[in-house]
Amino acid sequence: MTGQIILIPPYFENFGKRLIKSPKIYWEDSGLACYLLGVTSSAELERSPFLGALFEGFVAAEILKSQANQGMRKELYYFRDQQGLEVDFLLPRPNSNLWLIEAKAGKTVRPSMANPLLALRRALLKQSGRLIIVHRKSRSQLQTAAIARGVEAIDVERFIQELVAPHRRLS
Known about the structure:
By secondary structure, the protein is of the alpha/beta class. The protein has one domain. It has five helices and eight strands. It is globular. The N and C termini lie far apart (33 Å). The C terminus is likely disordered.
């Protein structure tokens, strides 16, 4: 196995609803994925219909790399049901908490982006620890920390720092 493909399995819980059970697939190396897609510049990437999926794959790869580098078991899930509720990543953390994570390639975060996270937290009966929207950093806009009650908006650089240094945030 070359480790070029990431398979993210679905998160199974007894929700009383029909879940989508096929894994999500990403390229681990976003640079290779861009090359294979013919994306040769950052300007092309900005216009690419694949920007969102490439960003999601980048976030997934960073989560799994941080787990491997810390000697942890690689563990990452996603959630999707047949009613259309989808959350990009569910990341198990110590103390039986889950981080619910949405990866958004945009630089502007809107409150409506928090809706899937909030809906899944209600279904999990507050088993989740943090609700996070990971987004690209904007050079011109002010950082938005709280996008909705209990939901954080974190740029990808800060998110990676928190993954690499988990002792700063214990939950």
